[in-house]
Design a protein that fits this description.
14-stranded mixed sheet; six-stranded antiparallel barrel; elongated
Length: 324
């Protein structure tokens, strides 16, 4: 890692084999992490453009042959065996013999730097997040994340300069500004950077979530998964929402709701009996307890039944969610 320059190597939590970079993810070559391909006394200098659990995308200074076996040596002391899987001009795919722990590799890279220069490079990952602009709150999916900002895929019609809040599972909501938006994608610059001491433990948790590809964004059917008993008015919402468990917030999909019960989906495991605070856009929120669990589907009971006033306000929300 070059002195005084933040690494532009992309670390990917999506556990896939090395391929060409997706559009918009091509890093600046002058700040890429260094590496070496070593075999039989030969040591070929290279630059690491992208690193995932299964392999690396390399820029190689010399000619290498497909299927050639090497060890990829990194400045942090790691030596990773593998083979060249493809070559296109100066780029080569290097397939690891065994998957590596990508977050541990990132941590080793940070550990060899002085504390004042430790910067988490851009991390490619797919996680469901909540995005709020004014009174709108909708799910989005991350493309990449750094300490300074996040790239998103979103159905919100964001515009450059919009002020937004991005709600990550297990992190405090982060405020930011839309720096660019085009064709359902947007880049958000945070008002305050995430400290690497906060981001690294969160990345460890995210890496365990479907290889960096965090759960679906919407329920796929309308039928309740749990019995609502004698409840007369069951409202189908299909609404993006948040629940608080202690000091942590999670993104959830509220599917059905009555004055006493709420059914929601959440990719984060929540134990039966857990006390929660449910927040829906435009509402102050309500306390509830989880009473039934089926996979990532949950039924919670409100500790105080919703008032008729709340139910009446939710009916237009249901129509909006259905496009009515």
């Amino acid at each position: 890692m070059r002195e005084g320059i933040a690494s532009t190597t992309i670390f990917s939590l999506c556990a896939d084999s090395p391929t060409a970079l997706p559009a918009g993810l091509d890093p600046e070559s002058e700040a890429l992490d260094a590496g070496w391909l070593a075999a039989d006394g030969q040591r070929i200098a290279c630059q690491v453009r992208r690193l995932s659990a299964k392999g690396a995308l390399l820029r190689v200074d010399e000619t290498v042959e497909v299927d050639a076996a090497f060890e990829l040596e990194l400045p942090n002391g790691q030596s990773i065996p593998g083979t060249i899987s493809w070559v296109v001009e100066d780029d080569a795919g290097f397939l690891f013999a065994e998957p590596i722990d990508i977050v541990a590799t990132l941590a080793r890279n940070l550990a060899i730097l002085p504390a004042e220069r430790r910067r988490v490079p851009r991390v490619e990952l797919q996680q469901v997040v909540g995005v709020r602009r004014g009174g709108e709150f909708e799910f989005a999916r991350t493309r990449d994340l750094s300490q300074a900002g996040v790239g998103l895929e979103t159905s919100l019609k964001l515009e450059e300069g919009d002020q937004v809040q991005v709600a990550f599972d297990g992190l405090s909501t982060l405020s930011g500004t839309v720096k660019w938006a085009q064709a359902g994608k947007a880049g958000i610059q945070f008002d305050a950077e995430i400290a690497w001491q906060t981001l690294m433990p969160w990345l460890r948790i995210a890496a365990r979530s479907n290889g960096g590809r965090g759960g679906r964004m919407r329920a796929v059917d309308d039928a309740p998964r749990f019995s609502f008993g004698s409840e007369k008015q069951v409202i189908r919402l299909s609404a993006a929402a948040r629940v608080r468990e202690g000091t942590r917030w999670w993104n959830v999909e509220v599917r059905h709701l009555t004055a006493h019960l709420v059914e929601f989906d959440c990719v984060t495991p929540i134990a039966r009996g857990t006390p929660l605070w449910l927040w829906l856009p435009g509402f102050p929120g309500w306390p509830a307890n989880v009473v039934e669990v089926e996979g990532h589907h949950y039924l919670a009971e409100f500790r105080v039944p919703l008032r008729k006033h709340d139910i009446d306000r939710l009916l237009p929300a249901r129509m909006a969610a259905r496009g009515g």
